[in-house]
Every structure is written in structure tokens, then in C-alpha cells.
Amino acid sequence: MFLNLDTKELERHIYRITTLDRIKELFELRKNVLVSPISWDDPYENYILRSKVRLKSGEIVQYNYHEWVYGQCWSLHSTSDAMWRIYAPDQKGVRIRTTVRCLAESLARAHPQNTPARCRVGRVRYLSQTSADSIARKTFDDYGIGLDELFSSLLVKRKAFTHAGVLGMSVARAWRGNGVGQALMQEALRWARESSTLKRIELKVYVRNAAAVHIYEKFGFEVEGRRRNAVFQDGGYLDDYVMALLLE
Fold it and tell me: Sorting pLDDT into bands at 50, 70 and 90, what band is 216?
């Protein structure tokens, strides 16, 4: 059930910072809700599972395994200013703590049928682009993918992208036009510039959202590309821009 973890690490504390609303939901429903990696912010998440595969016959296929799995990120670090700013920007957040073993046991209780085949807890590995690609090539075969490979693929991140961050923000309709978006951007970039690793911030924005594009350009973001028909919404396809800011 454990991947990239030693037995002695199972009693280590792990941490999450989440909102009060999520904590309330956790106790009311008595469920720890996991999220599909497809919706995670990191553009590399699920990279391997989404890859196209060349079979021995020469046929190129794309499996839908990336739609089968759900996950949740925890940290071995007890706290940091960055974690609070990201996960509880309004200062109405809660830090929760458990151990690796307790988290695994909670998954086992939720999925008592064939638990080892359905649930895994593992440590992320940060690899070079070459190593990550090598793992990707070995993940699939003509029969699809094994369980160990399925779960392990979600625990691969590229070192090449540790310097880049993905920015996402939203302002409630009732608060738009009051400078909230600019204030959020100022705070996000202040934090990013104080980081010792971030050198690049990137984001996506609908082409039709001229107000947001204007704010991003005001803060130095530049359009690096346009994705045509990138999103299907309200019965139609929308284009979006990929914008980025290189930090000094």
C-alpha cells in the first residue's frame, strides 16, 4: 500500500492547510474528499497517464486511466508562510495533522474491498526530464498498465519545473471592479519574489476576459500563446491565452 516510503516513516506526521468550510464539510460528512489530478494546478500532474502510447504493432493509442484515479497532497513540513498564503489567503484556514499510517488506515476503512489494489500512499519523486521520460516509456505495455505503475505515475515530478509556478485566482462577482484582483496579484507576486526558487509565473485566461488580461499585462505578464477551442463552456468552445511573467 506504500510507495517510496520506508516502514520507519509510517509514523511521521504529515500536514495539510485547508479552509474552514472544508473542515466543516469533513466533520459533517465524515468523509475525506479526494480530487481528480486532472483538476490540479500543476500542468505536469497526470502527464504520464495522459501520454499517447505506441504499441508493439506500431499503433498509437491513448488510454483513459487518468480519469480513474483521485488523490490528495500532504506535506512533511509542519508549516510555512507560503502554505498559509496559498491555502488560506483570507487567514480563515486550519492546519490539520495526521501520520502516514493513519492516513492509509482511513483509506482502508473507506475502501475495505481489495484495499491494496485501490489505495496507495506514497512520496513524490523529483526527477530530471530524462528520468521522468524513461519512467513514462516503461509505464505502459500492450496490455495497458499495472497497478503499481498506475499509482507510481502520479508520484513523478520534474525538477525542471520547480522554478515555475502556476497562478490561479478568482474574484466573486459582487467584489469585481473594487481593486480586489489587483490586490490579490500584488500579494501573490510579493510572495513569489520572496521565494528562493520561483523564477517564472504562468497562467491561463480566457481571451474574452479583457479586464483580467489588462490586469495581468499591467503587472508585466506577456501572452506566450493562444489555445484555440481550449475550453468547452455553456455549449460553445472558448480560446484562452497562456501568459507568463519572468521574475528578476
Answer: very high
Tell me, rounded to whole angstroms, the distance of Cα 23 from its chain centroid.
20
Which residues lie below 8 Å from residue 169, measured CB to CB, with a gap of 6+?
181, 184, 185, 188
Q: Percent of the chain scored above 90 by pLDDT? A: 20
Q: Which residue has the cell 513524490?
A: 124
Residue type present at position 12: R
How do 200-206 and 164-166 pair as beta strands?
parallel
SS3 22: helix
Q: Domains in the chain, please, with CATH?
A: 2-161 (no CATH), 164-246 (3.40.630.30)
DSSP H/E element including 186: helix 180-194
Q: Are 220 and 203 in contact (CB under 8 A)?
A: no
